Amino acid sequence: MSLSNVNEIILVLSGKGGVGKSSVTTQLALTLSLRGHSVGILDIDLTGPSMPRFLGIESSKVKQAPGGWLPVPVHETKDATSSTSDDSKPIGSLHCMSLGFLLGNRNDAVVWRGPKKTAMVRQFLSDVHWGKLDYLLIDTPPGTSDEHISLVETLMKNAAPGQVSGAVVVTTPQAISVSDVRKEINFCKKTGIDILGVVENMAGFVCPNCAECTNVFSKGGGQVMAKDFNVPFLGSVPIDPAFIALIEEGKRPTYPEGTVVAGQEMSEQTAMPEHDTGSLVEKYQSCSLFTIFDGIVGQLLANTRP
Ligand SMILES: Nc1ncnc2c1ncn2[C@@H]1O[C@H](COP(=O)(O)OP(=O)(O)OP(=O)(O)O)[C@@H](O)[C@H]1O
Ligand code: SF4
What we know:
Subcellular location: Cytoplasm
CATH class: Alpha Beta
Protein name: Cytosolic Fe-S cluster assembly factor CFD1
Pfam families: ParA (PF10609)
CATH superfamily: P-loop containing nucleotide triphosphate hydrolases
Binding site for [4Fe-4S] cluster: 207, 210
InterPro entries: Mrp-like_CS, Mrp/NBP35_ATP-bd, NUBP2/Cfd1_eukaryotes, P-loop_NTPase, YlxH/NBP35
Order of helices and strands: EHEHEEEEHEHEHEEHEHEEHHH
Bound molecules: adenosine-5'-triphosphate, iron/sulfur cluster
């Protein structure tokens, strides 16, 4: 299996659609990569493959290698150029494989029956040449579908003991009381997948005028829910319009002068950079959500094997 050089596999799950599972996968991957790790993202959301868009590589094509596919590079390993800390590590590589790269037209609808989806998931797990990876994040469709069942069956049969670290469950404050989250957690328990933690997304709003974070919904629901289910809570993530601008328009996140973002005070220059250059991962370093995800990744790694 092409996963033999992958050190750890982490699934990203959500009970319902639109809670930000793909955006959490993207940010986990960028943060792990900013910590110097080599990372892969496998997008098995076959009916709505959004990872190519999130990573700004929509027009990329997958190259064929003998016996399989080469995942698309988002960035290769390189020295950290714009890191704010003195002990900055090189940025690790990031590669992605998604059905989105194989569709002729990004608006093509994928209307497949279960057996075809199962075959595609198996092929993704066996025929992608990842090379050496520290972490492979698998972005799954919402709910518990045919893709999930074939994913777990194939992983259980083929992954080395301990290679699948577990799952991160993404929810929103509104979805917390809904039975979808319960179903997702039960699915993990039944299939023997450890829950590494819950991320509560869209739990507040970062004001574009002053970068103040306001908790639009009551705070702490995610933490209470995690406690009820006896699973770790990894953190709350607010909505940041600067993150949307980064994904949608490739714009470096900017905040008002004087705001402290990722440990760096925004000066007039950093708040309004003259030249908006740099790769996605370099731009992400100045997003307020990076500080939050750095904490989430710290917790996550503490919950995976050493
Ligand atoms: N914390 C956030 N701040 C700003 N925008 C966000 C945040 N989380 C998600 N979004 C935006 O919300 C939209 C939906 O998020 P996303 O596609 O990640 O959800 P999903 O759960 O993966 O959806 P699907 O069920 O379609 O796979 C995207 O446009 C994304 O950019
Ligand atoms: S947080 Fe401050 S700047 Fe932002 S809308 Fe509210 S009052 Fe205005």
